[in-house]
Amino acid sequence: MSSFKYPRAGGGIPMMSRRAAFGLGLGAVAGAALTGCGSGGAPSSGAKKAAVPPPTYVAPPVYPGAVVPDVLGVPTAYPSVPKKLAKTVTETPGRGGVVRHFHLTWGPPATPLADNPWWQGLNERLGVEVKVTEVSAGNYDAKFATMLAGGDLPEVVQLAGGRYGEIFSAGCLKAIKQGAFADLSEILSGDKVMEYPNLANVRTEQWQACTINGGLWGVPIDIPVEHLEYRYRKDWAEKLGFPKPPADADETAELLVAMTKGNPEGSKKTWGLTAFPGMALELAYAMFGVPNNWKYEGGTLTHATETPQFEAAIAWLAKLWKSGGMHPDALALGTQTDRYRGFVVQGQVGMAVDSAANFHFPTSQYGKVVAKLDGAFAAFIPPGHDGSSKATFRKTAGVFGINAISAQAAKDKDRLAELLRLFNWRRGPVGSEEWYYQRWGADGEYFTRGADGEPVAVEGTNLDADRGAIAYGLTPQTWVFPTAKECVETNSQMVRQSVASPVERFRSDTLSARGAQLDQLFVTYIYQIVVGSRPLSDIEKYREAWRSQGGDQIRREFQEQLKRN
């Protein structure tokens, strides 16, 4: 065994932003300026108001063959498509004209409308022409700021990009507070949501996560409460003398170094880990039990970076870097998601983390790799650092942002109702005709139903490219793949080992204002400690700078809210 020994500490889960975790380290989030918009059919002020009941929750239907988890927040999954489809929307929801979307994308842009049967069919079913401004996650902040500065907001805007466990970036929060978006709380509160019954399938805690100052600012982008899954090259590990998954942090480091230096693919260059922060930070935080952003005990908040667990995790990463267990360009790869994923697809990465579904959908980027390697790219749950404790993970409310409606559009009550009808159609539950079209398209265009009722791809088509960003964030989380049982079991165990952030529901004005500055501190100190440009002792300098440049004020703001609730 090597000398990878670190302080023993436990408790908490990784402190990473939703966007960083989902996009494998997409970098710091900058603030954005905007001009406010007026109110109309729905209130649009960020001022505090009396809270109203959250929308009523109605569980979505469950069909025969379902793998129903016993852990809240893990999606119900299906090994095959339900044989009979239900129609949940009987009338065309739109009334014609154009609906503009400002839309996140995690891959290449969608095929243009003229050459895109799926997009054309979506427009036909919705009864509107959907025009999309596609925004890659890496360019989100700049594009968002430019859009707001222009003053002409699309009818639908996806708000996301928070740091330190917040759902929204500083720019998004500022836009909400200055009245750029419609408050939907009165319109959807209680049983009023039943006018849009598919929206009633949104869980109460998901709505609550999108509530700011008593206002409900959009329809949640649905994700599992723990949406990640870890994979490692089991075949490499066995070849390198590791017949079982690593049992502790020391063995994990040894395996990662061996994957980099042991030539498991012969002459092809390989690495244990390729991206920092991304996979590397997520893995270290999990093994060493770094709290989920904050730890709350005895009426006092301790930030994750102030804990011994954090220091142990960074010490492990610094030693791993020095030993050669990471790609030499890991700092750059932390913001280059496509390049990072390319290494996985090319068979050059020993460990990876991504959304669970991306590993299980047979037609997804990673799903194809999993299928090709036939069990060699295996799921595993990282160990606790000492081999006896368990790794701990970051539990969320199951929200990665919201689909907001501009205040300008909401001035027209009929227009607002139309946009909510469109959301209702897009939220068609698993087993509905609306859901099926958004997942597989019209029968015969991209897929046909085989003899067993399963979708069979039409040769020469690429639905993923045609859907592109247009499908992201409006449909409910869908787990339909042959490995449904395996996925649910792995995800359920991770959720059992996860902890929620104590400040999940709260907001800090100082964090919104100074978040980008604090992110840069992390880069200046922690990144450089990991790659050996600063000593580990500079963690204390980082902590002092963090506290003095806003951290202590953020702590006070959160503590005041915790004491009132």
Automatic annotation (TrEMBL):
InterPro entries referenced in this protein's UniProt entry, alphabetically: Bact_solute-bd_prot1, SBP, TAT_signal
Pfam families to which the protein is assigned, alphabetical: SBP_bac_1
Domain of life of the source: Bacteria
TM regions (residue ranges): none
Protein name: Extracellular solute-binding protein
